[in-house]
Amino acid sequence: AERYNVERYADYNEMLKRDDLDIVCVCTPSGAHRDPAVAAAEAGKHVIVEKPLEITLERCDAIIQACDDAGVRLCAIFNSRFSEGSQLVKRTIDSGRFGVLTLGDAYIKWYRTQAYYDSGGWRGTWALDGGGALMNQSIHAIDLLQYFMGPVKAVQAFTDMRAHERIEVEDVAVAVLRFENGALGVIEGTTTAYPGLLKKVEISGSKGTVILEDEDILKWEFDPALPEDAEVHQKFATRKSGGGGAADPRAISHVNHRRQMENLIHAIEAGMQQLVDGREGRKAVEIILAIYQSSREGRVVHLPL
Asked: Strand order of the sheet with strand 46-49?
């Protein structure tokens, strides 16, 4: 606050009394999103909530309902949707070039040290983190997967805590998915894969396959090939994503956060719908909770929960 000459408040309710405040961004621990988000909505402020929207569907729904009742916007942060590669893949799926979608997979083989979990009392707890490698780290790729492939119909999963100490939640998870459109898929998420690899989302269909690694396209093949495919190959041939959040959360770029906030502000000013509202933000949370339930109960879990 001193560095940037902005006011700070010991009580966010005092901050919410400001008439010159239009949008509130909630960046508290995951299981502490609901109360400040609801308070902001009730004060007539638009609300941005960092991922996950909340850690249970009931808490997500409380935020969504509060914003609906107050007539304010709710934006859930899923900044990976805003990369150039992600938007290109989404447009191409919607155009039908993949033919029949058959497989949609997400691989998040990240690494977090024990010191990372020890650095904050909320990390690795069910009450405030809401989960581990899936709810905290893999959720961006899980959101992308359902954004591309559509709703998930059923999951079968295993989760475990293998390589860390003093945490309650999973640090490795594998799930098999069936999407509503009939396609199948896999999610692999971990914080134990030294030294940390870039996240991958792979989409395959009867007429094409794309592999998205972080923000770059590694594979782009379709039958028939079109002239614009050469432009895609050329554009991404020399691009290489940085480390992203694979090993160090501080290495995550701010650019897609900025794009998402710009999208919200433009939507407010133009009276349009933003790309990720509260109901969109809820979807990845529901998938992850279904995976947790499947692992606990040792059975296929069907969605919606």
From this structure: 23-26, 46-49, 74-76
